[in-house]
Amino acid sequence: MIPFHKAHITDDEINGVIEAVRSGWLTMGPKTIEFEKKFGEYIGVKNSVSMNSATAALHLALKAIGLKAEDEVIIPTNTFIATAEVITYFNAIPVLCDIEPATHNIDSLNIEKKITKKTKAIIPVHFAGQPCDMDEIMSIAKDNNLKVIEDAAHAIPASYKNQKIGTIGDITCFSFYATKTLATGEGGMATTDNDEYAKHMKINRLHGISRDAWDRYTAAGSWYYEVIDNGNKYNTTDINSALGLAQLKKVEWMQEQRAKIAAKYTKAFTNTKIVTPVIKNNRTSAWHLYVIKVANRDELIEKLKDEGIGTSVHFIPVHRHPYYKNTYDYKQTDYPVAEDIFLQSLSLPIYPGMTDEDIDRVINKVIEHAK
Predict the structure, then answer these.
(1) Where are the domains of the chain?
(2) Which of the four pLDDT bands, split at 50, 70 and 90, describes residue 275?
(3) DSSP letters along 94-117, please?
(4) pLDDT-derived band of residue 214, with 50, 70 and 90 as boundaries?
(5) Strand pairing of 290-293 and 345-348?
(6) Cis ω on the peptide bond leading into residue 157 (within 30° of 0)?
């Protein structure tokens, strides 16, 4: 069996977790603070705020910029539902935008058409690890006094015109879920150069307590605290952060391995019926996903399953989900590109643990069964 994904875990991660457990810090503690510091240094940003998911990071990022009920936030319809979900936490409105046919990223040419007096922010999603058109998006945001919160769940490490993702928008949110390019099982990080946003998110990740509550059980800590906001329980743990520290050291090597697999796929699928990913010249992809387009997507999924090859689909567009379709009256005809791409798209295995034999088997079976 070739699974769709397998996290690259070695003795480095295992030993880090053992060290964390033996230290006695099972929740947020020194390892988490170290992970935040080293992650921020790697990205090249002033503030890194760890959380227990990218969903949590997106939620607190929107709270930090002051999102309110009835505000509107523009997002691509081709994204995991969390991008839309966090907007609804404020009784605000997710405004869906169609996507580019080649990259599956938000179509920056359509964003301005979606802006109203109620628009507060844009959330570009760096699909599969390829950065969106950030110059255009930042320019639109500046001209319309909007905030940009990047959904970079797929995009570590990735860059746009030699700028690392995590340094461009007002706040960037990363995911460390088990299938992601830096995996801690569950986890996320928000990065920003805005000190006030960072302070706001730190307070709200731990119940709205007025200071870093994690250290109140240390020798230097104090039992006294005050709750100054209606916060959440969104902190990560030192166990997860130990995994993150080990993964961060090899994050570029893992990206290089995925890029090599992607290159093999693309070369093999050239001059076939299979449509391969397009990466624009002025950016580098994290290659979180390798998404092909075929005419017989559903059939191919089943054929590959029978051959022992795991696949997935990214994504069922937001406008197709019953809750969102019914609540916000989204119509499939309003998103023709996303509709067309959804019906054809299939994500293939791409992770460092794949052997040459695994890669060749995927290639051969995809070519054999694709139409």
Answers:
(1) 11-249, 251-369
(2) very high
(3) EEEE-B-TTT-SB-HHHHGGG--T
(4) low
(5) antiparallel
(6) yes
Residue 217 is predicted with a pLDDT of 59
What are the catalytic residues?
A: 180
Give the pLDDT score at 223. 77
pLDDT tens for each residue of 62-108: 999 999 999 999 999 999 999 999 999 999 999 999 999 999 999 99
- Residue 361 amino acid letter: R
**pLDDT of amino acid 205:** 97
Q: Which of 52, 107, 106, 63 is nearest to 87 (CA)?
A: 63
Q: Which residues pair with 152 in a beta bridge?
A: 174
Tell the burial category of 34 from Cβ atoms under 10 Å away from its Cβ (0-12, 13-18, 19+): middle
Mean model confidence pLDDT for the chain: 97
Residue 40: is its pLDDT beyond 70? yes
Tell whether the torsion through CA atoms of 137, 168, 352 and 184 is positive or negative.
Answer: negative
Q: Where are the alpha helices (DSSP H) in 74-210?
A: 82-88, 108-111, 134-143, 195-205
Q: Which class in CATH covers the domain with range 251-369? A: alpha beta
CA distances from 230 to 90, 149, 209 (A): 13, 22, 9
User: Radius of gyration over alpha carbons of the chain, in Å?
Assistant: 21
DSSP per-residue letters across 266-332? HHHHTTSSPBPP---TTEE-----EEEE-TTHHHHHHHHHHTTB--B-S---GGGSHHHHHHH---G
The domain 11-249: what is its CATH number? 3.40.640.10
91 torsion bin: left (phi>0), alpha (psi -120 to 50), beta (else): left
Q: Which two tokens stand for residue 215?
A: 């250290």
